[in-house]
UniProtKB/TrEMBL annotation:
The active site is at 212, 246. Residues 30-430 form the Aldehyde dehydrogenase domain. InterPro entries: Ald_DH/histidinol_DH (IPR016161), Ald_DH_C (IPR016163), Ald_DH_CS_CYS (IPR016160), Ald_DH_CS_GLU (IPR029510), Ald_DH_N (IPR016162), Aldehyde_DH_dom (IPR015590), Aldehyde_DH_NAD(P) (IPR012394). GO terms for biological process: aldehyde metabolic process. GO terms for cellular component: cytoplasm. This is Aldehyde dehydrogenase. Belongs to the aldehyde dehydrogenase family.
Amino acid sequence: MREAELINLYQSQKNYFKTNQNPDSKSIISQLKCLKAEIKANEQLIIEAIHADFKKPEFEVLTTELFVVYKELNLFIKNINSWRKPKRISSDWLNFPSTDKVYHVPWGNCLIIAPWNYPFQLAITPLIGAIACGNTVILKPSEYAPNTARVLETIISNVFDTKQAAVVQGAVETAQNLLNLKWDYVFFTGSVPVGKIVSQAIAKHMTPHTLELGGKNPCIITKHANLSIATKRIIWGKFINAGQTCIAPDYILIDQTLKTEFIKEFKKQIEAFYGENIQKSTDYSRIISDKHFDRLKNFIDTEQVIYGGQNNRSHRFIAPSLIEAPKLDSDIMQEEIFGPLLPIFTFQDLNEVETIIYKIDKPLALYAFTTNKAEQNYLIKNFDFGGGVINDCIVHFVNDKLPFGGVGASGLGNYHGKHSFKTFTRQKSIVHRKNYIDIPIKYPPYNKTKLFKKFLSWFR
């Protein structure tokens, strides 16, 4: 979209919001139901588009894209009316007589920048929250998933007037033009380096924002783990979407007595999941682009691969691979991997994991496989991360009652379910004073200083 067209769209949404700042819940619910019906009508197109972008299996589209979106829609349709109602707050006796309330009001004009790895779900889920709260939205999907972006544009244009919600296509220049505008709220999902650019760009307007980023998520396996179940769950969590998941395990920290058995179990489960020839499996995604493939291939070429490593650039295929303990200053340990490569480190004592985890920015997720409660408590209390799971991977994302988000370099703010409602509204406090009593002590002349000092002594 040309810059002039973009500015016209932006201005039309600003004008629309000025006259529609408090839409009624009935109309919001009606729109959400229309969005749900439109998504349902286009399910097959969504599946085909995501497969065309990077060969994501239909089952993964159904479970990690559509299921999550339907779940979020149903939750907002059921609860948005009660969530939007002003909340009565007990009054402070100093304001007697009064009635106090907190109103949740929309921010206004929102920009949502979505990533390519879950190109439908990570675009629509925040849009649901933003629209349900009464905001306008310009959605910028990723240019790396063009087929999905076109389906997104079709769905949004069929449900909403562009003055309320619109999809803007484009690459880096388009994103820069969008970020140059003054937004009431920005919601970004993507990599840490781009997240920093977004944050810097909107800082000049002091724009409130959410950053859903990533990080190097540690996966710790102690001697008290059920190794068979742990291996199966790690493989699922790591290699779903070919490892292109922000909350996927990024590296393994395993008790040294379990390493040999883990590798053996890993090989067995990989073959059970994907067959002997993984490249022929229709249950395994491909890498999104040549650029991303080349980056991952460079990791393979410069590190010691102890399992896997097979790759095919023309098909953007990289097999699930185990990497022998890289140096901590190597590229693979300085960046979020975001692919099907899994470095593995060993430790003798659990305290040793600190030497690695503390040297890396705070991760989006941490996973611990152990049945020992003392070990579980140690890992939860001693490390800072966005969210975590004991004895599984990535499943905390499913519970919409849990806030999802990072900390430090892995993100700012959270969303999902009611937490999305809190993200896409701000609290407006109102004290409604009554007129039947008007206590005069606050008014001049201030000849009550001595009396007030006695009153103040109760608080000192």
